[in-house]
Structures are given as C-alpha cells and as structure tokens.
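Could you join me in thinking about how sequence relates to backbone shape in a protein? We need material for that, and I hope you will provide a protein of your own picking. Label the sequence line and the structure token line clearly, so we can match residues to local backbone shapes. Would you write everything just below, so we can both look at the same thing?
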Amino acid sequence: MASTSGIRDDRDRRAALLVVDMINPLDFEGADALKPHAVAAARQIAALARRARAAALPVIYVNDNFMHWQADFREIVAQVREGKGRELAELLAPEPGDYFVLKPKHSAFLATPLEILLEKLEVGTVLVSGVATDGCILATATDAHMREYGVHVPGDCVAAITAGRSRRALELMHDAMHIDVRGAHAALAGHG
C-alpha cells in the first residue's frame, strides 16, 4: 500500500525521519514494560536513521521536554544518559547535522516549530518513529495527515507498553487514514 499523500507529498519534496520521544528517561509508570519494546524499536530506528543520513534526508528528533522548561535538547540527552533511558540515548545518539524540536504535548506539531522546519527543508513525507505508538506517534501521524503530508509509520520503528497496544494503534492509522505501516525496509522506498 502506498503511503497517505496530500498536497505536500510530491516528487519535488523529500522525506524526513521524525524520531519522537526516544531520548527518554523512562521514569514514569509503565516504563519498565515499555523499555524492551522501545529498545527493539531503537535498533530499527538507528539503522533507518543511518540510511536516511546516507541519502541526505533530514533526521529530526522531536522530544518531550519532560517539564524541564529551561533545558535544551543537549541537556536532556545528557540527563537521559545518566538514568534508565541510557540504552535508548546511546542507540540513538544524535549526529552532527540532525535537527531538534522540543514539544510540550503529545503531537510533534502542537505548539512547536516543526511545520516551519519541514517547509524550510522542503519535506513532503514524514517517517514517524518512536514512542508511544498509541500516544505521541498516533497524535503526530494524525496531525501530519491532517496537514496533508505523506505519512509512513514503520511498524518496527515504534513501541508501546504492550505489543497489542502498538498493533491496535498501527491498525487504526492504516485503516482510518491509509497510513503506510510497513516496516523500516519499505520506509525510504522512492525517497533516496
């Protein structure tokens, strides 16, 4: 199935990989259940990010600020490396040339400069990866779809507290919005 497309998804625009909330302290209720699923997704996201960078496609970290309103992204990465989320931060360490957007709520678009950044980078398709499939990923994919981006949510690059919750959210995105949820192997097809 082709990814959902809209007015922004055309041959003159490129794809960007969004890495949502993967730099994560894992200090909330349910984090222990999420961690193994998140680590498995992080391995897939890291490989996809390497492919995106090699194809000169933007990698954009869109991360919760975890209510640290005075911290910037690099400070959040440093804090996470000291705690339970260390493995995620090490697997997905940002590289020079990557972009960073801090978000205050679930969607990567809500009250952030993400849409402006995507326009400046001439992005027409977003590859949405990260946690949690049934929360921030669903909200971000829905907002991208409403803004008429092409949307692909690689099913092996997202995680939730349970595999069932992740699967149900992916099914909803696919069935309701025709979002492509095939794995990372299909994520960059036609984009680099």
